């Protein structure tokens, strides 16, 4: 091995090992071996297999959030930003699934083992979108009592376009059109009368 | 074997064989054997394995539609009927999944092999719901240009509550509440101003 053994390098190796062996069969020893280090060296960064697995999954889920943050803090009509935010959430997932279907399927299989990490991720998404919704209420665009609950509802109504269980349906040429019709219904449901 | 070999009896046996062996491994010979008849007798009703498989799946999908038909032809506010129709679609699936999880998972696995049967089923659902939506337009309740497209959009927005890919999430105690918030958003989106 050349260079310092950083947490980032371990996570890269773990992702690679996961892709090859699947979530059930990946061990800390496999990860250490692929880096040419002892498993003790890996444990100095991650106390156990579960901690390593959660850190890999968290990094993956954070990648999904990267393009979403700027849309939250931008100026402009909330409806346009909420549309763009949901569109980015959908297209980021869809690109991940089409660029590396195997890794995407691996992370989706992993998700059932890391329910807490996934539910934290959903809370983060809800909170980001809720800030746009609250902005829409302040601007007089949206008639909404509880922006957080509304954000959760919007994520639920757009499930088909971002939930990995639907990856097999994402190649449908009508999907973009369907996204737009769902968005139109949601937008009308949010608007002040 | 006692009694006549009807198509219905063959379908019952095929469902049972599917449950035991899974969709990939079920053969016409297995089905015939479980009925104590020759596979030739089965072929007199279903010309090949694919025809038998499709007929089993169609029967299963028709069971889901049974409680939905009366809601379409009833009188009363369209919003209330659309809510009830979607609620019945969701709860019928959820009951099937919870009463016999193994058979439900089998049919869901089968669905990827019978895309045409599944898309016909979705068309049937869309058509049923579209009749309620069109009724809502006639009654002055809904502002909708294309009831069929709107019905498809409503099915898409409620994916999480009826698509078998979400069966693992259906035990969530917050699911009924989430259904209601999605429905409220959809209803507001449909209503005339």
From TrEMBL, chains A, B:
Residues 4-64 form the HTH tetR-type domain. GO terms for molecular function: DNA-binding transcription factor activity; transcription cis-regulatory region binding. Residues 27-46 bind DNA. Keywords: DNA-binding, Transcription, Transcription regulation. Pfam families: TetR_C_27, TetR_N. The keyword Transcription applies. SUPFAM superfamilies: Homeodomain-like (SSF46689), Tetracyclin repressor-like, C-terminal domain (SSF48498). This is DNA-binding transcriptional regulator, AcrR family. It comes from Actinopolyspora saharensis.
